[in-house]
Specification:
Elements: E1 8-17, E2 20-30, E3 35-39, H1 46-53, E4 61-66, E5 69-71, H2 76-82, E6 84-87, H3 99-104, H4 115-128, H5 144-157, E7 162-166, H6 174-189, E8 193-197, H7 201-207, E9 210-215, E10 218-223, H8 230-238, H9 246-254, E11 266-275, E12 285-293, E13 296-301, H10 308-316, E14 327-329, E15 332-333, H11 339-344, E16 347-350, H12 354-358, H13 365-373, E17 379-380, E18 383-384, H14 386-399, H15 416-428, E19 434-438, H16 446-461, E20 465-469, H17 473-479, E21 482-487, E22 490-491, E23 495-496, H18 502-509
Parallel strand pairs: 3-8, 3-9, 6-7, 7-8, 13-20, 13-21, 16-19, 19-20
Antiparallel strand pairs: 1-2, 1-4, 4-5, 9-10, 11-12, 11-14, 14-15, 17-18, 21-22, 21-23
Helix pairs in contact: 8-9, 9-16, 13-14, 13-15, 14-15, 15-16
The site of adenosine-5'-triphosphate has 19 residues, from strand 2, helix 1 and helix 15.
Protein name: ABC transporter ATP-binding protein
GO molecular function: ATP binding; ATP hydrolysis activity
InterPro entries: AAA+_ATPase (IPR003593), ABC_carbohydrate_import_ATPase (IPR050107), ABC_transporter-like_ATP-bd (IPR003439), ABC_transporter-like_CS (IPR017871), P-loop_NTPase (IPR027417)
């Protein structure tokens, strides 16, 4: 193959949305077999550019060249036919269909296939790239990592020549990320180009040989990440006026070192919780005992699919417990209380799936704020107090740097990281007695991660009990006072972070102790 012909070139691409220039005269070139990073803060315009390249969003201006020829993309199916595949931050799979059926849906009507032969082909491909997918399992039973591998497999099936990955490692465990990177390197060495966006800068450095950096929709730099440091990459993203050097980056990522302190009274308690999953492939919770004290952040680590979803559902009230005493808030049994009552009693909740469960995506930020914060004096005698609601929502956006802070815009129009900041802000601002948060900084950029960590530390220091469930060990170690792991529906012991190590937690996550 002629290495001089670029796989993809975009020239002077611009795209605006009401009140925002998402991309401004963006130029980008990707060569065959290159793993190219697209970097920028939340809202910098990365997803917009990726969606333009995938034919999902029409640019207002600019040109796209595919293997040297100018193209006019008007749909993802046209992009897929050319060899462009995309894996979104929020997966685009049908949950009730199997892996094979999901791939079958994307085949052209002209293609001859039957499910059995297709399954065999997919299995062979899956083995060749070490993707490890069980073809006959319904998608809703797959873990996050498995769903992502299925999306990649679907692209490989279509002989993708440019694979676009929008924050693929945001909710993967370190082990899953390692596996993903090995697969990506193999795909790239076979000649497929990869466009990769991530807020995890050390990963970008490890994987990518070229990077384009966006700030407020414009290309501000291009570099080889392997010749940079995470600090210098962060500085390019944030801008030299604000971003400092290594020290500045370290303060962003390191969180607050915990001092050991005496524990306050227990605020959230789970007693011998045994619960069958409602999902036939789900994980049964077995004899869960857990205590979170006032003024404490407790972290639960674990590989996705080990009972985190079931535990979150039981704690939030989505699923009721067989006995009320299985969950206590202070001294009050709440195991039989629904979501609304638990919220009234002071429990706030940030779910795993932000678009499906965290917000109603076509509701405005204002309406989404009201959905969980109505008891904060925002409703009186059945009437919404609009002035208060507007001020409340605006305060969340300002305090958590949600951009654009336009409160009557639909939640779906926010970038992924900004939506996460909004959901975290909405829950933290209610000063809950207990905050349960799954993946609190999913897809959030380095500086916003630091602000969310700071906000979590502040509510803890003001007496809240915080329970975090995350696969991100760096985050758990940066924030938590005590940490444990979940494996096959059972909890490990919990230890102060100062008395354990990543190795030990990693062993607990793998059920080795
Ligand atoms: N459908 C839409 N309607 C209105 N505004 C939009 C829409 N999609 C994106 N935007 C805006 O365009 C800007 C760029 O968003 P984009 O999702 O491309 O950012 P990003 O760099 O991918 O951010 P993140 O890292 O948070 O995913 C943001 O200000 C966002 O609010």
């Amino acid at each position: 193959m002629n290495q001089l012909v670029s796989r993809l070139q975009v020239r002077n691409i611009s795209k605006s949305y009401p009140g925002c220039l998402a991309n401004q005269q963006v130029n980008l070139t990707i060569l065959p077999g290159e793993i190219h990073a697209l970097l920028g803060e939340n809202g910098a315009g990365k997803s917009t550019l990726m969606k333009i390249i995938y034919g999902l969003v029409r640019p207002d201006a600019g040109e796209i060249f595919w293997e040297g020829k100018q193209i006019n993309l008007h749909s993802p199916s046209q992009a897929r036919n050319l060899g462009i595949g995309m894996v979104f931050q929020h997966f685009s799979l049908f949950d009730t269909l199997t892996a094979t059926e999901n791939i079958a849906l994307t085949l052209s009507p002209k293609e001859k296939w039957n499910l059995l032969r297709l399954s065999q082909k997919i299995r062979t491909l899956s083995e060749a790239y070490g993707l490890n997918i069980e073809c006959d399992r319904p998608v809703h039973t797959l873990s996050v990592g498995e769903k992502q591998r299925l999306e990649i497999l679907r692209c490989l099936y279509h002989k993708t020549k440019l694979l676009i990955l929008d924050e693929p490692t945001a909710v993967l465990t370190p082990q899953e990320t390692e596996k993903l990177f090995a697969t990506l390197q193999q795909i790239a060495s076979d000649g497929c180009s990869i466009l990769f966006s991530s807020h995890k800068l050390p990963e970008v450095q490890f994987l990518c040989s070229n990077a384009t950096i966006l700030r407020q929709g414009q290309v501000v730099a291009q570099c080889n990440p392997q010749q940079e440091t995470p600090a210098s990459l962060a500085k390019l993203m944030i801008g030299s006026e604000q971003g400092g050097g290594e020290e500045f980056y370290q303060t962003l990522i390191s969180g607050k070192q915990q001092k050991e302190k005496p524990l306050g009274p227990v605020c959230l308690q789970v007693n011998n919780l045994c619960l069958k999953s409602q999902n036939p492939y789900g994980m049964m919770l077995q004899h869960i005992d857990l205590q979170v004290h006032i003024g404490e952040i407790v972290g639960i680590a674990g590989v996705a699919g080990n009972g985190q979803t079931e535990l979150l559902a039981a704690l939030s009230g989505e699923i009721l417990c067989p006995q009320p005493e299985m969950i206590l808030l202070g001294e009050m049994p709440i195991g039989d209380c629904g979501v609304a009552k638990r919220r009234r009693l002071g429990l706030a909740y940030v779910p795993e799936e932000r678009l499906q469960k965290g917000v109603v995506s076509n509701f405005s930020l204002l309406e989404n704020a009201l959905l969980t914060a109505h008891s904060q004096g925002l409703v009186s005698r059945g009437r919404i107090r609009f002035r208060k609601l507007k001020a409340w929502t605006q305060r969340i956006c300002d305090a958590f740097n949600v951009s654009p802070a336009v409160i009557d815009m639909p939640a779906a129009s926010l970038s992924g990281g900004n939506l996460q900041k909004f959901i975290m802000g909405r829950e933290i601002s209610q000063n809950p007695a207990v905050l349960i948060a799954a993946h609190p900084t999913w897809g959030v950029d380095v500086s916003a991660t630091a602000s969310i960590h700071q906000a979590l530390i502040e509510i803890r220091d003001h007496g809240a009990a915080v329970l975090m469930i995350s696969e991100d060990l760096d985050e758990l170690f940066a924030l938590c006072d005590r940490i444990g792991a979940i494996y096959k529906g059972q909890l490990s012991a919990f230890k102060p972070v100062t008395q354990t190590s990543r190795d030990e937690i990693g062993r607990w996550m793998a059920g080795l102790e």
